[in-house]
């Protein structure tokens, strides 16, 4: 199950989240369109995927991952193939929302909800390992897409990528994925039924009750801010670095940031079940804030590169820690509906990140002020996540039930 989730989210991130920027550039270059003409399609991609996270989370919890991951593979394939053959702007605005459907079904929310019934003792490690697919997708997807576009053309590369999505993900969904461990005569963590039955949690939170708790409120606020600052910086990273570094150094720094992200995720996977998830989140956000301060105040090229690498260590963990926090505090049975809601709010806030950096950059004429404000907001998010740390109502209610 973990390997299947790793592969599916790897494809989803490679062709969806990380591929969106490649498609936007390729479609404008191919058709000689201004970027502004079709840039709104990327916003639609984020909004559609965010809104769908609520029904995706609830649906997987109720019916299992198989139909949703299958839909994700087909929708991603249709969207990617469609944008590769778009000759009118309206076709781009149709293709990107279809890709948004695919990404919602192959996202971290999908993976975490799929794995929630399967693990208790090792739930943090399982989600962390499966989330490595996102890092792998980010490292491999854009270079392969760019290489294909350069050699085969955009339309052929998009068609080939669409075929890969179906060939890789659809068999996984149909053959490997199961709803609950009981379907295989097991209980969480692969234990025999007689040993694992006592671990099942019977209390089920509804969205309204969960939304009233400080635990979920602080989780949504902290991760929403952290993800907005993160995605905003990643969107502007090339432009920011190009002001101080030659092109080859920008490319190396971007790759080093991605490698650091994978390294951070590997470290989290090793220790995820032994850590205080809220305290770890706070430390990660403080580290991101410090890296922003360094990059804002020190302009030496080597220091900028090192700042990006330190920031990279936090990238994957901000994404991975949110489902771990929700899973521990609200349990497996309520995870799909609660985290679906939380991830929807987090992603909608995240979509504001690129615009936040862009507006401040244009107002101040540089990236120093945006980075300092981002550092301040990350510091605030680090405090917010700790506000709910000692409030155990969610976990106590689950245990009491």
Beta-strand percent range: under 5%
The poorly predicted ranges are 196-200, 393-401
Could you tell me the mean pLDDT? 85
Task: Report how far apart the termini are.
Answer: 28 Å
Summed up, the domain count is: 2
What structural class should be given to the helix and strand makeup?
A: mainly alpha
CATH homology superfamily name of the largest domain: MFS general substrate transporter like domains
User: Order of helices and strands, N to C?
Assistant: HHHHHHHHHEEHHHHHHHHHH
Radius of gyration: 21 Å
Strand order of the largest sheet: 1-2
| Helical percentage | over 70%
Rough shape?
globular
What is the architecture of the largest domain at the second tier of CATH? Up-down Bundle
The biggest sheet amounts to: 2 strands, antiparallel
> At the third CATH level, what is the topology name of the largest domain?
Growth Hormone, Chain: A
Assembly type: single chain
CATH class of the largest domain: Mainly Alpha
H/I helix tally: 19
